[in-house]
Amino acid sequence: MSLQFVVDGLLLGGLIGLGAIGVTLTYAILRFANFAHGEFMAWGVYLTLALVGALGLVVGPDVPLRPFSVGWRVLVAGVVAMLLTGAMALALDALLFKRLRRHGTAITLVIASFGAAMALRSLLEFGFGAQPTYFSRAIQFAVPLGFGIRITPDQMAMLALTALLVALMQVVMTRTGIGRAMRAVSENPTLAEVAGIDVARVVRATWLIGGGLACAAGIMAGITIQVRPYMGFDLLLPLFSAAILGGIGSVPGAVIGGLIVGVGQSAAVHFAGAEYRAAIAFLILIAVLLIRPTGLFGTRD
Predict the structure, then answer these.
(1) What is the DSSP string of 151-211?
(2) Which of 24, 43, 169, 287 could connect to 243 by a Cys-Cys bridge, CB 3.0–4.6 Å?
(3) Contact 186, 29 (CB under 8 A)
(4) Within-domain flag for 278
(5) Is there a domain that residue 14 lies in?
(6) What are residue 293's phi and psi, to 5 degrees?
(7) Are 117 and 38 in contact, with CB atoms under 8 Å apart?
(8) In a domain, 241, yes or no
(9) What is the pTM of this model?
């Protein structure tokens, strides 16, 4: 029996988990579901492509770092794009969500995020076109690992990068002042402010981190699959499923939830067919919440 679907699911689950970290932090700290988060993924990967193109005009075409399909310019462009995507998320908050938080309700913010998502998607499609594109069209040979599993060097790198970013995020949340402040605000923002925590600074950090990780997830999807304006929208349901499944406010929970959703969707394609892929996120979510409504790592208020 081939276990290839497990590796495919882990790859998908890793990028879902990275994207879900921003979703769970936004919901826990800002108290609303941001449906524009998927567009941060799409914008991040297109910004990376644009930066790679700009570097190519300056220093010539990119040379792949064998055995991988991309070169060092994608790495440099990806880091810069993560910062730019975080800045874009921060700008969106300053222009839209910050004003609505003062006088609006949670449902107002949710509806506004829907509108922001459609606007960002339309701008992306207008600026870069609707046709799919790729970081590289080079053909990679998969390495056999046994049990019917084959994995390409790009996929190995994506798994390693996911593990590195998750570990770094866990260190930030548990060992740094801003991470402890974020956890305090997620528990009780009023009490945190009374205790002297700069809530505005925590909000800024939330948008920057969420946007940066969404960009990283988008780059991974772009390298291993393809780049499309609707890629963020297509991943929106799995992102929210992973965040709720893991427990709102839990970074490890978001990642584990993403892995469960990713492996579940891959198994559905393998055993039942691609038409059941979208439904599996709902089924897993419902099954877990019927047993534990707060999610795997969530706590009751």
Answers:
(1) E-HHHHHHHHHHHHHHHHHHHHHHHSHHHHHHHHHHH-HHHHHHTT--HHHHHHHHHHHHH
(2) 24
(3) yes
(4) no
(5) no
(6) -60, -25
(7) yes
(8) no
(9) 0.92
Residue of 270, 286, 285, 191 lying closest to 238 (CA atoms):
285
Q: Is the dihedral of CA 62, 68, 72, 78 positive or negative?
A: positive
Note whether residue 261 is domain-resident: no
Instruction: Find where tokens 């929208």 sit.
Output: 233
Write out pLDDT tens, residues 138-179.
777 788 887 778 888 888 999 999 999 999 999 999 999 999
Rounded CA-CA distance 26/42 in Å is 18
Domain span at residue 161 reads 22-230
* Number of separate domains in the chain: 1
What is the spatial distance between Cα 210 and Cα 213, in angstroms, rounded to a whole number?
Answer: 5
Identity of the residue numbered 11: L
Q: Are 87 and 208 in contact (CB under 8 A)?
A: yes
Residue 268: which region, alpha, beta or left (left: phi > 0; alpha: psi -120 to 50)? Answer: alpha
- Is the Cβ–Cβ distance between 233 and 52 less than 8 Å? no
- Kindly report, residue by residue over 200-251, the tens digit of the pLDDT: 999 999 999 999 999 999 999 999 888 999 999 999 989 998 998 998 888 8
H or E element, residue 242 = helix 236-246
Pick left, alpha or beta for residue 248 (phi over 0 → left; psi -120 to 50 → alpha; otherwise beta).
Answer: beta
How many CB atoms lie under 10 A from the CB of residue 204? 17
Structure-token pair, residue 225? 């699959």
Residue 120 corresponds to which tokens in the numbers above?
Answer: 């960002």
